[in-house]
Amino acid sequence: MDNDVLRQAPLFSGMDDEAATALRESMSETRLRRGEVLFREGDAGDKLYVIMEGKVKLGRTSTDGRENLLAVQGPGQMFGELSLFDPGPRSATVTAVTDTTFLSLSHEDLLRWLEGRPAVARGLLTQLAGRLRKANDVVADLVFSDVPGRVAKALLDLSDRFGRTADDGVHVNHDLTQEELAQLVGASRETVNKALADFASRGWVRLEPRSVVIMDVERLARRAR
Ligand code: CMP
Fold first, then answer.
1. Chain centre distance of CA 28
2. pLDDT at site 140
3. Looking at ligand 1, which residue's alpha carbon is closest to its atom 3?
4. What b/e string do you get for 196-207 counting C-beta neighbours within 10 Å, with b at 16 or more?
């Protein structure tokens, strides 16, 4: 398994090799196929997870059945710690968007691990602070930005994590359906499709199934502001 991926996880940042190996050995591996659910919003939870390969979506469902995606996460990213630090049920449903491999650590082992390791605890706080900052941006965008602006921002955010630069632009294999992209942006599929088609007609992006090529990052970034 790729130790470089593990090193990106906040849990492992600032740890020497010996400590990282010891922690890795107390974690167990889980694999999901595309579409399988790891856990559901409301479940009791006693583990946190680090993604080693693949992608997951973190979603919530309204009482009338509509779905919203809080985030899409990929290799090196971590989730499942909220129900430890703020004891309560799982705050989101986690579903594999592609075949995915995780390492998991029980909350009990994590607490034991944090004792006397302030650098690791700081890494986790940094992640939580970053998430709160991002969640604030999402709320502000829902209030202040139009749908095309939110679509532009979502594409750039996906590109930061999953983009690969090539001669013809940044290839972003997000692996999301148009419905899932719409759930991530918090708008209807029709409105999101219209925004994407508009960006494509201007030559800013090229649309491909479950992927997009960003050909004009600057214009897209200007539209996202
Ligand atoms: P937990 O509530 O245990 O299970 C669902 C997990 O999703 C949660 O812990 C967090 O790790 C993660 N999560 C919840 N909200 C967000 C968010 N807005 N952005 C990214 N991750 C989140």
1. 21
2. 93
3. 80
4. beebeeeebbee
Both tokens of 62, joined, read: 């309204």
Q: Is the CB of 71 under 6 A from ligand 1?
A: yes
Best CA proximity match to 10, nearest among 150, 135, 113: 113
Maximum Cα interatomic distance, the chain, rounded to a whole number of Å: 56
CA–CA dist 106, 80 (Å, integer):
10
Q: Is any ligand 1 atom within 6 A of the Cβ of residue 59?
A: no
82-103 pLDDT tens trace: 888 888 899 999 999 999 999 9
Q: Both tokens of residue 172?
A: 């972003």
From residue 50, give the alpha-carbon distance in Å to each of 7, 103, 171, 173.
10, 5, 24, 20
Q: What is the token pair recorded at 27?
A: 């974690």
Q: Strands of the chain (E only): list them.
A: 28-32, 37-39, 47-53, 56-61, 67-73, 78-79, 93-96, 100-106, 163-166, 169-172, 205-208, 211-214
Entry pTM? 0.91
Q: What is the pLDDT of residues 156-196, one digit of tens each?
A: 999 999 999 999 999 999 999 999 999 999 999 999 999 99
